[in-house]
Design brief:
heterodimer; A: about 450 residues; alpha/beta; 2 domains; four-stranded mixed β-sheet; 6 strands; B: about 250 residues; Rossmann fold; binds adenosine-5'-triphosphate; binds magnesium ion
Chain lengths: ~450, ~250
């Protein structure tokens, strides 16, 4: 084994000193929190601008002359906080109105409203057009519904007057109770709030671990493939193969060096990604309109609902699950490292290797991402077992199961299998590492690629 | 054995799929000599050298290096040879010094031997302070010098050099030739090298073999071949042997 050390030293130095490898790590690690800040603040600003800024002026295109339309128009004109511009056709309003929200009252509206008041049936319709010059997050369109609510509220007031009911009756009728949806995770004995702002957060832990593993794995795959292909390109592999050392050392050295350097670089990336997530979650959470409906903790506690947790807290799994996730992650990453060595050794230069990578990486990421949307326990057993025998996909599933605390009996078998697959692939790679086979494959590949 | 040969090649055939790259060649390399394999592109020089270096296995025939079979005793052969691939480049981000010291550690287990080999390597490479620069800053000639130094510093019994001067300018090529000539004599290393440069072979080699399309056309001492074919230099000899007449068209 003493002969492995000098090889490993060479591989690590060659990787870690390569600016093409380390600079992207550092840049993406730095760029993620910056993106987080940009997304977070711009989202926050847009939300504030769109939802909390009141509408002070609207344009109305009234195409109806019946009684109730006139009543409505008069009501709107009398409002002190909204300035009204009236037009007689839409194109005129679109061209000339100083406001961006244009409300169209179609012909026959008043008559239909009257009918609705007396007999019910379908409510009458108004149309709201929001003029938009540029799109940020597409949230500007929400202004249209705020503008609409001005008219709707006016109609509500008119209706209340007609029926002579007080506003609180309407409130009670339209909103008789407030519900607090909760999710109870059976195996972990915890409650999660299931309101919209938390639902977003719950998907993050579900895909975060597999995505991280995919990122690290992909990086290491790329690294070991590139470094092996480079050995081919500059003919150093040929030299290595004539050294008085076992071939396995060459493979092991590549695997360990890309594993080590990749892990180091990925740690930077993960810190960056973590910062990004925190920043984005924080800025979403601090939006007033969302967080105004606070959870009535005292009531919940009185009912015995004590372990109410933030979804992020679920990311810390129970001990046996944590071990399974960690093992699966390490095995998957090693598997990808070996795969990289295998691919790299078949490629006579780095260009061919990166062509291969660009084919292999997307399905890998998409596969892992896809698992994020699947409920593992809904899958047929043999499909679940099959997926648990595939490196990386296994990590995605196991980490998903870890969040809900479901232990599937097959997990240890799956771990053993992927472990064996990794060893087997490593063994096959070492076997393949002879010029007879390599020269033949490279010769064919490079001829195909040169065309 | 007393007069054991450095290399014994017997009826060597190598096929790549259906293509026959070596069509049953036989030759010997004597201990201590510099032996040149001369041949046009695609003659099978690299194939022959890779087989001797245990990288490729023969389709049929046998190859022995100091009595050891390159197939069944490959591990033993690897301990006594060193091989310089055609167009050998270098690791970009490690220094020449680091590279040589890695090689020393791979070939030798005890500290003293490692240090001796490293010292010798530095002397052969003769790169001055540049030995501590990353190899990506090296010119092609410097990279080749490091590689030749690497091949010779471990004092192999047989050094296999595939076109050691290809792609280098005349000065650099000359330096490499001087290194090979001087250190193979000083260290008692047998050398087999390939080339398609006839002047190089003439200058460097004791004996040569001319290979063409997988067939060994001629073999012998340079002087003896020149007088036998009644030609002035190896270039004319080469043309005559591979059947290339002076009007510029091949008779093959
Ligand atoms: N892996 C391979 N698969 C198929 N054919 C090959 C392979 N390697 C070499 N050849 C063919 O075998 C023949 C001999 O190749 P070789 O590389 O030994 O020649 P060479 O004498 O070294 O030539 P050069 O002067 O160009 O280096 C060539 O025709 C080449 O195309
Ligand atoms: Mg060649």
């Amino acid at each position: 084994m003493t002969k492995l050390a000098p090889l490993l030293g060479k591989d690590i130095k060659d990787l870690i000193r390569d600016p093409r490898i380390m600079i992207p790590f550092v840049i993406s690690a730095l760029i993620m929190p910056i993106i987080g800040v940009v997304i977070g603040t711009s989202y926050q600003q847009t939300i504030t601008a769109v939802l909390t800024k009141p509408i002070t002026a609207v344009s109305i295109v009234c195409l109806d002359n019946t009684t109730y339309s006139k009543v409505l128009l008069k009501y709107l004109e009398s409002m002190s906080n909204v300035k009204l511009y009236t037009y007689h056709n839409l194109s005129d309003a679109l061209a000339n109105s100083p406001t961006n929200s244009i409300i169209v009252i179609p012909p026959g509206f008043g008559y239909e409203f009257e009918h609705y008041l007396e007999k019910g049936g379908n409510p009458p319709q108004i149309i709201v057009v929001q003029k938009v010059r540029s799109m940020g997050m597409g949230l500007k369109s929400l202004r249209a519904s705020i503008a609409a609510s001005i008219v709707i509220n006016a109609l509500k007031s008119i209706a209340m007057e007609i029926y002579n009911v007080s506003p609180h009756v309407i409130q009670v009728v339209t909103n008789p109770a407030y519900s607090i949806p909760l999710v109870f995770i059976v195996n972990r004995d915890v409650f999660l709030p299931a309101s919209p702002q938390y639902i977003n957060a719950i998907t993050i832990p579900l895909i975060i671990v597999p995505i991280i593993v995919a990122i690290i794995g992909g990086t290491i795959l790329q690294m070991s493939a590139t470094s092996m292909a480079l050995e081919n390109e500059v003919r150093t592999l040929e030299t290595l193969l004539t050294f008085p050392i076992p071939r396995v050392y060459i493979v092991l050295s590549k695997i360990f060096s890309s594993f080590g350097v990749g892990l180091l670089g990925s740690t930077l990336n993960i810190v960056g990604f973590w910062l990004y997530t925190m920043i984005v979650i924080n800025s979403f959470g601090s939006i007033k309109s969302f967080s105004s409906m606070a959870l009535p903790r005292q009531l919940l506690e009185a009912l015995g609902i004590k372990n109410l947790v933030n979804p992020i807290a679920l990311m810390v799994p129970g001990p046996s699950m944590a071990v399974a996730v960690a093992l699966s992650a390490i095995i998957s990453i090693l598997f990808l490292a070996v795969l990289g060595v295998l691919i790299g050794s078949l490629c006579s230069d780095v260009r061919i290797a990166s062509t291969f990578m660009s084919v292999i990486m997307p399905p890998l990421i998409i596969g892992v991402y896809f698992i994020g949307f699947v409920d593992p326990l809904q899958l047929p057993t043999n499909v679940l077992y099959g997926l648990l025998s595939v490196p990386l996909i296994q990590t995605a599933i196991v980490s998903k199961l870890a969040i809900t605390g479901v232990w599937v009996e097959y997990i240890p078998v799956g771990l053993l299998l992927t472990g064996a697959e990794t060893l087997l692939l490593g063994f096959a790679t070492a076997k393949l590492l002879n010029m007879d086979k390599l020269a033949c494959i490279q010769y064919r590949l490079s001829r195909r690629f040169r065309r | 054995m007393m007069n054991q040969r450095a290399v014994e090649v017997k009826k060597l055939v190598k096929k790549y799929g259906s293509f026959v790259a070596l069509k049953g060649i036989s030759f010997d390399v004597e201990k201590g000599e510099i032996f040149g394999l001369l041949g046009p592109n695609g003659a099978g020089k690299t194939t022959t050298l890779r087989i001797i270096a245990t990288l490729l296995t023969p389709t049929s025939g046998t190859v022995k290096v100091f009595g050891l079979d390159v197939v069944s005793e490959a591990n033993k052969v690897r301990k006594i040879i060193s091989y310089l691939p055609e167009e050998a480049g270098a690791y970009k981000n490690i220094t020449g010094f680091e590279y040589l010291s890695m090689v020393a550690k791979i070939y030798f287990s005890n500290r003293k031997d490692q240090e001796e080999a490293l010292e010798l390597g530095i002397k052969i490479a003769n790169l001055g302070d540049k030995i501590h620069d990353k190899m990506k800053t090296y010119s092609k000639g410097m990279q080749r010098r490091i590689q030749v130094a690497r091949a010779l510093m471990v004092r192999p019994r047989l050094a296999i050099l595939d076109e050691p001067t290809s792609g280098l300018d005349v000065v650099q090529a000359m330096e490499i030739r001087n290194i090979v000539k001087r250190f193979s004599r000083e260290l008692g290393i047998t050398v087999i090298l390939s080339s398609h440069n006839t002047r190089e072979v003439e200058e460097l080699c004791d004996r040569i073999a001319i290979l063409d399309q997988g067939v060994l056309k001629e073999i012998g001492y340079v002087d003896e071949l020149l007088s036998r074919y009644e030609v002035k230099n190896v270039e004319e000899l080469f043309m005559k042997v591979i059947g290339f007449d002076q009007t510029g068209s091949s008779t093959r």
